Amino acid sequence: MAKKNAAAAAAQGEALPISARTVDLLISFYYIVFLFTVTFTDLHNFTASVLGVEVKDLEHMELAYPPKFLTDLYFKWARSVDPLLYENPMWWQSIEWVNLLFLMPFSVVAIVGFPLGWNGLRNWGIISSAFTFY
Asked: Which of 29, 44, 87, 89 has a C-alpha 20 to 30 A away from that of 81?
């Protein structure tokens, strides 16, 4: 009987129950992880460009966000694994602007909208998540 009710709700354009939309939960989890990484990594590099300093200089500055242990972990990762984060060239800064101005606000909407069943977000969510695979 529950499957008939869910199918009837979907046919009328209503949102299915969250238990029937595991893909939406996975997409929401993706956007939660994306939001954390954008506010963590891109905000470091964005702050450096706004202050007019190199990203390397932020390692020795006191920042309000993120906490010091996360900043230390970020710089350890950047030095040993991903030197592009450490160098922060101009073309990389333009990608960070896109992340911070467009994709981050959409990820907040997606985190709320997918579990609530906002069906109009599905296509936009797929399109915006494709931007993050560059």
From this structure: 29
